[in-house]
Amino acid sequence: MKFRYSARTKTGELQVGFVDAITKDAALNSLHGHELYVLSIEGTDTQSLFTSINNFFNRVKRADVMIFTRQFAAMLEAAIPLGDTFKALYRQTRNPVLRDAAFEISGDIDSGLALSQALERHRGIFSEFYINLIKSAEVTGRVQESVAFLADYLEKENTLVSKIKNAMIYPVFVIVLFIIVAGVLMGVVFPQIEPIFVDANVTLPLITRIFLSLGHFIANWWAALIVIALAFAAFLVEYVRSEEGGVVFDELVLSLPVVGKLLRQAYVARFGEAMSVLIKGGIPIAQAIETSGHTVGSLLYRDSLHSVAEKVRGGELLSRALEQEERYFPPLVSQMVAVGESTGRLDDMLSRVAQFYTREVDGMVSNLVELIQPALMVVIGAGVGLLFASILLPIYNLVQVF
User: Fold this and answer.
1) Given Cys at both, which of 140, 207, 234, 316 links 311, Cβ 3.0 to 4.6 Å?
2) Helices 257-280 and 243-254, axial angle in degrees (round to 10)
3) Do 360 and 341 contact (CB within 8 A), yes or no?
4) Which residues contact 23 (CB under 8 A, 6 or more apart)?
5) CB neighbours (10 Å) of residue 111?
6) What CA–CA distance (Å, rounded) separates 114 from 117?
7) What is the pTM of this model?
8) Per residue in 140-152, pLDDT tens?
9) Residue 395, CA distances (Å) to 196, 203, 382 in order
């Protein structure tokens, strides 16, 4: 449950914000543990079904954070104070969740919190990568540069993800539409024309008998099938969100012939871009590797990069550690990283790795888009052919009888 509080620090500064806890007492204990003197605290969560649905549709998307960060960078460049910046972002932001976050961040900054501390209160919106880069920038005094880096990074990230999603929308839509049409034909049309063939004592082909059996099953159990499908989908979503399910799903997807290769290249591009930005922001290499692991979007890559980070902490070169993870990182990556280490331009070489694999992903996506349409035509054509054959063959036999 979320509680809104106002409190005083040891130095007497006013601090307001939200804290997540199971009970009010637990929230108070958490605040006392941070050496805060609580003035007021009240619960704000009413997790009804309506609230859950509203939160789903108002969730903060990648594009929302990208636009927010670009506006943030522009205001910092104009030398607007942080508190005023977030007040302006509050007025400009349309997403209600991000808008409320901007308001709370503005209040936290006015009460004396650092920018990174204010952002940490909204980890559901701002990633670990985002917060760590800002935290490092505060130490080095390069907040403006780092936010500009973040804006560029998020734009590249959003472009890459959008290309992959857009390439998948058309085939998924066509396949789902075909399944719905086929279900209607088998569940509604086929059972209505079956008595005609039975009365005429026509021998039905095997394909027709199969579709008729499926049609009877769908017609009799359509409600149960919908409930089972929704329950299975809900279970699948929850399982994939779990640690074990996420790993199994990643293993399955990465083992696919074309999609697996595409995702591997996309993950390497994300890793290279994230590492480049973090190193430019002054974050230590081992910490940058771990943070990049949480940014890539794959649990398998996250675990792999955690292993790489531990080896780097143990004194091993990043290029050698990546070379041992050849399953996830092609030899080209470790070779380019080795060049960057020897020349002292690691951030530049990682940026080039990201650019190279981004181009590879772009090329693969373009080729997939061109190949998907003819492949779909063949698959859907075969399905439509079977459906029509199951109707036309009995009609042909019926004509012969008369």
Assistant:
1) 316
2) 120
3) no
4) 1
5) 18
6) 5
7) 0.66
8) 677 888 788 888 8
9) 10, 11, 20
